[in-house]
Design goal:
4 domains; 3-stranded antiparallel sheet; Tetrahydropterin Synthase, Chain A
């Protein structure tokens, strides 16, 4: 193999160095991510400019780019916290969060790439302890899950205020109590349900008895009014009207005037 001319060696070296320079000077940022530029010789982390967005970028080879996920992420936490009476509660929760895009440089400079472990996790755990400590086991088990997760969210947001992390939602997936406490609460809830059902039946029976009493009193009152209104003259008039109606019918009969009780007509016969 023939040796390269003397002037060819520098060219090869230059080409190699150029390739290395280009490789070191290009950064491709994937979708949903952003880059924080670190200038080695001029101020370190860049915080007064927007972060590098997704796509292809050329940077000086002596500088660095730290890439962060800026889409919403989920932090899964299994925690053991204490209720208001000191009982140990197991809490299974998810926290939806994302770093503040415009403050990504400040987040990198002050908290670093491990901001989730250094910042977010302690805040969520502290908030969960504070919130669960306000409730007794029965409230946690029966009806307060939505209230708990809303309060944990508010507490976490308060702790992370001005910390360059945006917490969007906290979801409490499960609240676990010791088996004996859970069984006691379920037994109490069943007893309360049975008591409510008994009270409902008792109320219905009382209402039905009251309805019947009012109905009977109404009928008795109506009979009193009717009896008071049936004077001898009215009865006689009713009898005359009934006689006239009967006389108009096609049935064969004999009417004896004035032979009935109280002077009313007496009707004999009645066959066709």
């Amino acid at each position: 193999m023939e040796r390269l001319p003397k002037f060819g060696i520098p060219i090869v070296i230059g080409i190699v160095l150029l390739i290395i320079f280009i490789a070191k000077s290009t950064v491709t940022i994937d979708s949903g991510k952003a880059g924080v530029l670190y200038k080695t010789f001029s101020g370190g982390v860049v915080t007064d400019e927007p972060p590098l967005n997704e796509g292809f970028h050329i940077v000086a080879p002596w500088n660095k780019v730290f890439v962060y996920e800026v889409r919403q992420q989920s932090l899964e936490e299994k925690m053991q916290v204490l209720s208001s009476n000191g009982l140990e509660i197991k809490l299974d929760a998810s926290t939806w969060f994302q770093p503040s895009y415009k403050d990504l440089g400040k987040l990198h400079r002050e908290k670093g790439e491990e901001y989730i472990q250094r910042l977010l996790q302690p805040a969520v755990r502290s908030a969960a302890r504070a919130v669960v400590g306000r409730y007794d086991p029965e409230q946690l088990y029966a009806s307060k899950r939505e209230a708990i997760q809303n309060e944990i969210l508010e507490e976490t947001q308060k702790l992370l205020e001005d910390q360059y992390v945006q917490v969007n939602e906290v979801l409490v997936r499960d609240v676990s109590l010791p088996d004996n406490i859970k069984e006691a609460i379920e037994r109490k809830l069943r007893q309360e349900q049975e008591s409510l059902e008994y009270e409902f039946r008792l109320t219905k029976a009382t209402q039905e008895a009251e309805r019947q009493r009012i109905d009977a009193e109404g009928k008795a009152r109506a009979n009193e009014i009717l009896n008071a209104s049936l004077t001898p003259n009215i009865l006689k008039e009713k009898g005359i009207q009934a006689t006239l109606e009967l006389a108009k019918s096609n049935n064969a009969k004999t009417v004896v005037i004035g032979s009935g009780e109280g002077g009313l007509p007496l009707i004999l016969g009645g066959s066709n």
